[in-house]
Amino acid sequence: MEKTGKLYGVGVGPGDPELITVKAVRVIKEADIIFTAASSKNSYSLAVEIAGPYISPSTKIHILGFPMTKEEPLVEKAWMDNTKEIALALKKGLTVVFLTLGDPITYSTFGYILKKMKHVLPTARIETIPGITSFHAASARLNRILVEGEESLLVTSGAFGGSQIRNIKQVENIAIVKAYKNIKDINAALKEAGMHKKGVAVSHCGRKKEKIFDNLDDLETRAPDYWTLILAAK
Ligand SMILES: C[S@@+](CC[C@H](N)C(=O)[O-])C[C@H]1O[C@@H](n2cnc3c(N)ncnc32)[C@H](O)[C@@H]1O
After folding, report:
1. Which of 36, 110, 187, 198 could form a disulfide with 99 if both were Cys (CB 3.0 to 4.6 A apart)?
2. pTM score, whole prediction
3. Cα–Cα distance, 32 to 51 (Å, whole number)
4. 23 with 11: CB under 8 angstroms?
5. What whole-number distance in Å separates Cα of residue 161 and Cα of residue 91?
6. Which residue among 75, 98, 113, 227 is best mutated to probe the pocket of ligand 1, counting the most ligand atoms within 8 A of its Cβ?
7. 95 CA to centre of ligand 1 in angstroms
8. Which CATH superfamily is domain 6-129 in?
9. CB neighbour list of residue 224: distance below 8 Å, 6 or more residues apart
10. Cα(193) to centroid of ligand 1, in Å?
11. Residue nearest to ligand 1 atom 27, measured at CA
12. Which atom of ligand 1 is nearest to the CA of 178?
């Protein structure tokens, strides 16, 4: 029987084209086919742009669509279909790369592929190549210590406002990704936790459009921007 190919989940870092690992570059160069996810409305992929200089002209690029909806059945179906496409390439014996921004197993579309592949092609050989996360890049950009000594760090999503922040008690540091909607509630929860004063937001870290907000209240008066994260501390 023909040997199946191998799937690499590759993180290309958060946006600065120099924040990609040597290992990611090698695997991207070796790929027969590259998959990445983009919203069904928009086929542009920043991950492909960052990987661009290392993609061989003979490598096929396939942008997988995923619906911008929280309707579970639609999302499930889209990811099952996408995983089946990747599995087809693996069955042909190809070296397959799935590109993601930041790290592939941190709030990433590659997580769907990992879970679904267990059902679609349980024998698939898979390797994850870690990438620099957005919150590591942002703390480095600010020369700001993310966590030290015996402290803890909570990494959470701000998509539903401040609810996650209100659930925490003994955490000194917090990184909030998807901090673009419900900013007023996020700020209120950070104030309740005594973390608002030492809070800073970074949008488009490492990109031309990068913006730093030293006062989190300023986020409330601008249009929501998906590519925003907050670092805050007690
Ligand atoms: C779906 S998560 C992807 C996280 C990514 N896998 C990582 O390792 O950082 C998307 C969120 O990450 C954050 N993010 C990703 N890249 C960013 C950047 N360059 N600047 C600021 N925030 C970023 C934003 O909060 C955005 O809403």
Report:
1. 36
2. 0.93
3. 14
4. no
5. 43
6. 227
7. 27
8. Tetrapyrrole methylase, N-terminal domain (3.40.1010.10)
9. 180, 181, 183
10. 23
11. 178
12. 27
pLDDT per position as a tens digit, 125-150: 999 999 999 999 999 999 999 999 99
Q: For ligand 1, what atom is nearest to the CA of residue 207?
A: 19
Q: Report the amino acid identity of residue 114.
A: L
Q: Side-chain half-sphere of 20: how many Cα atoms within 13 Å?
A: 25
pLDDT tens, 76-120?
999 999 999 999 999 999 999 999 999 999 999 999 999 999 999
Fold match, 6-129 / 134-233: no
- Ligand 1 centroid to Cα of residue 74, in Å, is 23
CB neighbour list of residue 100: distance below 8 Å, 6 or more residues apart: 9, 10, 11, 12, 36, 37, 47, 108, 109, 110, 131
Distance 93 CA to ligand 1 centre (A): 32
CATH class for the region spanning 134-233: alpha beta
C-alpha of residue 134 to centroid of ligand 1, in Å: 5
Sheet holding 153-157, edge to edge: 153-157, 173-177, 228-233, 200-203, 211-213
Ligand 1 centroid to residue 177 C-alpha, Å: 6
Ligand 1 pocket, CB under 6 A: 14-15, 100-103, 106-108, 133-134, 177-179, 202-207, 226-229
Residue spans per domain, the chain: 6-129, 134-233
Q: Band the pLDDT of 55: cuts 50, 70, 90.
A: very high
Residue 110 tokens, joined: 């590659």
If we measure between CA atoms, which residue out of 212, 219, 147 comes closest to residue 190? 219
3-state helix, strand, coil in the chain (%, to 5): 35, 25, 45
